[in-house]
Amino acid sequence: MKTIRISPTCPEEDKIEEGIRVIKNGGLVAFPTDTVYGLGVDAERSDAVERLYQLKKRPREKPLILFLAKKEEIVDFAEIVPLLAQRLMNRFWPGPLTLIFKASEISPPTLTSDEREVAIRIPSHPIPQKLIEKNKILLATTSANFSGEPNPLRANEINIHLAEGIDLLLDGGEALLGEESTVVRATSSQIELIRDGWLPREVIDEEGEAKGDILFVCTGNTCRSLMAEALLGKLWPAGERDKVKIHSAGIAALEGSPPGKMTLEVLRKKGVDSYSHRSSRLEREALRMADLVLVMEKEHKRAILGIHPPARGKVFLLKEFARGLKEEIPDPVGGSQESYRKCLKEIEESIEGIIRKLGLE
């Protein structure tokens, strides 16, 4: 096993590149994470994944964990993203929390269980973060120990027999937290604690008891975001309605403006009465409190991240989160009645997708 000393806070580029080279060639790399020392391979190389399973003597029914670089990527790999899971990600990613989701069609088969589930985490340690960001591949990971044995917190604690099968050890000193990640299953609107870890059960339970918050944002809050708010409120399961706040705001809204006549008309034909709605201007506090922020245009997302940068990872285009389409929904204001009907149809299809994506069907 080749060992390279590497800075845990500012990993040297050439040493990260060496790790990437080994991984791309199908090798096994050991490195510190925010929890314990881990092993990583290219998730899309079945030979590397097979070798890792054999080396660790890991049972096949225990899938490896997919490390991601950005929270936004979750919509690509998870078929369902429950609102509570989004809240947990907002608070604890990057960090010592592993979430198990229903796997999407593009999730790596090597990491997908027989139940079509995939375990995902975003580490907060700079070394795996750099490996993921610069590698541009999917990193399959597990702890650097034989299954059932203690997790190593330092490079010199890795079992010497395990080390014989490792191609490269990036020695970055002691792991940050010294305890494995907490594992939570989030395959439906109800979550389940699977493994206690650094995050205690009480913290997970506390988040589960909080009321959900979904915020729609457009420009003036008299048309598109109002349509989305009204339609999601209508489709939200009646028994769950008191557990979520669904609201809307506008980037450039004139506070207290009523909806336009054609907006009200197309909504009325869907059985929705929004005559009492008055526009609200987007505030930083609303962004801070929201679990999920859904916008109509890319410019809305840029503006939101300018107002409140920590919102990154919970702000999506409506079509992106609901249907996996990085498409905008144009503003019909000033257009024909047909443009309003088309806008409502696009939003309605996306809201149906939101219900599915949140696991509420």
UniProtKB/TrEMBL annotation:
GO terms for biological process: regulation of translational fidelity; tRNA processing. The keyword Repeat does not apply. It is found in: Cytoplasm. It catalyses: L-threonine + hydrogencarbonate + ATP = L-threonylcarbamoyladenylate + diphosphate + H2O. Keywords: ATP-binding, Cytoplasm, Hydrolase, Nucleotide-binding, Nucleotidyltransferase, Transferase, tRNA processing. GO terms for molecular function: ATP binding; double-stranded RNA binding; L-threonylcarbamoyladenylate synthase; protein tyrosine phosphatase activity; tRNA binding. Residues 13-199 form the YrdC-like domain. Its EC number is 2.7.7.87. One of its GO terms (cellular component) is cytoplasm. The keyword Hydrolase applies. Gene3D superfamilies: 3.40.50.2300, DHBP synthase (3.90.870.10). SUPFAM superfamilies: Phosphotyrosine protein phosphatases I, YrdC/RibB. It comes from the Bacteria. It is an enzyme of class 2 (transferase). The active site is at 218 (nucleophile), 224, 331 (proton donor). Pfam families: LMWPc, Sua5_yciO_yrdC. Belongs to the low molecular weight phosphotyrosine protein phosphatase family. This is L-threonylcarbamoyladenylate synthase. It comes from Aerophobetes bacterium.
